[in-house]
């Protein structure tokens, strides 16, 4: 069974169609990355998967069940979403933010429990945010803030986590830091991770499964080494490039064509070797 599926899904904002009759399968227990040009519908599709946007037609299935028919709390116990650029209320501490991930489990019969406390502690430890638990979220660096929000989604205890551009506005060090956390989470706990990423090279490095969106549909989906080609980059991003193997990870690496400083071939070889 797939973690998430769409069946003839169509999405729009007003009169503008964003996604048209899309059929998609997201494998359970894998890292899936959505790629595509700006405005192609990646974030819109992610919102629909989380039931934040009602389809014009078609359906989203979560673990084989129509997500539209599931109770809201049931969805929140099985699927978490971290939107792009979330903002915490002024003065809210990291601990208070992470505790919000346990709200789907609270009701008048079941108040805060030791199990809730453990999930929060584990989430803080997994993201390296335990030392910052009493710090205000708005006082943290960009990378720390993003880790705090990821900790909140972890505390929610869902088997599937959706993240909309989790590395946006982060420098390279913090991008890798955030992606490593998500990668480790997938590998150690087999949680299904679905992300929108702009950097194709990082997408290829971290993804088990890539979905390329273009012209309101899925252009291609599959393992990075199977679908990332010069033709795909040309058709989806309207850019010429060369695809080579990453010298460290062996994953597809995109070298875009364009203007820039050129070096002699022998210098380039020497740089590549190290």
TrEMBL record:
Gene Ontology MF terms in the entry: ATP binding; ATP hydrolysis activity
Domain of life: Bacteria
Protein's UniProt keywords contain Isomerase: no
Record InterPro entries: AAA+_ATPase, ABC_transporter-like_ATP-bd, ABC_transporter-like_CS, P-loop_NTPase, Siderophore_ABC-ATPase
Keywords tagged on the record: ATP-binding, Cell membrane, Ion transport, Iron, Iron transport, Membrane, Nucleotide-binding, Transport
Location in or out of the cell: Cell membrane
GO biological process, one term: iron ion transport
ABC transporter domain: residues covered: 4-240
Keyword Cell membrane: yes
Annotated GO CC locations: plasma membrane
Mode of membrane association: Peripheral membrane protein
Pfam families for this protein: ABC_tran
Protein name: Cobalamin/Fe(3+)-siderophore ABC transporter ATP-binding protein
Taxonomic source organism: Tumebacillus algifaecis
Taxonomic lineage: Bacteria, Bacillati, Bacillota, Bacilli, Bacillales
């Amino acid at each position: 069974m797939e973690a998430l599926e769409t069946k003839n899904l169509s999405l729009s904002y007003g009169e503008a169609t964003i996604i048209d009759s899309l059929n998609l399968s997201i494998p359970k227990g894998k890292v899936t990355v959505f790629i595509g040009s700006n405005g192609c519908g990646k974030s819109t599709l992610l919102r629909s998967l989380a039931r934040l946007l009602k389809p014009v037609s078609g359906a989203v299935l979560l673990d084989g069940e129509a997500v539209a028919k599931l109770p809201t709390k049931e969805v929140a116990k099985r699927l978490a979403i971290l939107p792009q650029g979330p903002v915490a209320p002024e003065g809210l501490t990291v601990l208070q933010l992470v505790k919000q991930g346990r709200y789907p489990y609270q009701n008048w019969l079941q108040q805060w429990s030791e199990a809730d406390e453990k999930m929060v502690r584990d989430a803080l430890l997994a993201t390296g945010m335990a030392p910052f638990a009493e710090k205000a979220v708005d006082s943290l660096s960009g990378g720390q803030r993003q880790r705090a929000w990821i900790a909140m989604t972890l505390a929610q205890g869902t088997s599937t986590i959706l993240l909309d551009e989790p590395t946006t506005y982060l420098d390279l060090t913090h991008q890798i830091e955030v992606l490593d956390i998500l990668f480790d989470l997938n590998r150690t706990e087999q949680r299904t991770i679905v992300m929108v990423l702009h950097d194709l090279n990082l997408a290829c490095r971290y993804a088990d499964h890539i979905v390329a969106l273009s012209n309101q549909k899925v252009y291609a989906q599959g393992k990075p080494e199977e679908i990332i080609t010069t033709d795909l980059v040309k058709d989806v991003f309207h850019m010429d490039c060369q695809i080579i193997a990453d010298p460290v990870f062996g994953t597809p690496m995109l070298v875009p064509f364009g203007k820039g400083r050129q070096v002699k071939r022998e210098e380039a070889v020497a740089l590549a070797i190290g």
